[in-house]
Amino acid sequence: MQANGAGQDRDSELSCRNGAQNGESSSAGGAHSNGLVSVTNNENSISNNNGVAAQPKKKRLSQSEEDVIRLIGQHLHDLGLNQTVDLLMQESGCRLEHPSATKFRNHVMEGEWDKAESDLNELKALMHSPSAIVVSSRPVILRLVNFFFFCRTARMKFLLLQQKYLEYLEDGKVLEALQVLRAELTPLKYNTERIHILSGYLMCSHAEDLRAKAEWEGKGTVSRTKLLDKLQTYLPPSVMLPPRRLQTLLKQAVELQRERCLYHNTKLDSGLDSVSLLLDHACSRKQFPCYTQQILTEHCNEVWFCKFSNDGTKLATGSKDTTVIVWHVDTETHQLKLMKTLEGHAYGVSYLAWSPDDAYLIACGPDDCSELWLWNVQTGELRTKMSQSHEDSLTSVAWNPDGKRFVTGGQRGQFYQCDLDGNLLDSWEGVRVQCLWCLSDGRTVLASDTHQRIRGYNFEDLTDRNIVQEDHPIMSFTVSKNGRLALLNVATQGVHLWDLQDRVLVRKYQGVTQGFYTIHSCFGGHNEDFIASGSEDHKVYIWHRRSELPIAELTGHTRTVNCVSWNPVLPGLLASASDDGTVRIWGPAPFLDVQDAEGLNGMKMSSSLCFIVTGVI
Question: Spans of the WD repeats (predicted)?
Answer without folding.
Answer: 296-337, 342-373, 554-586
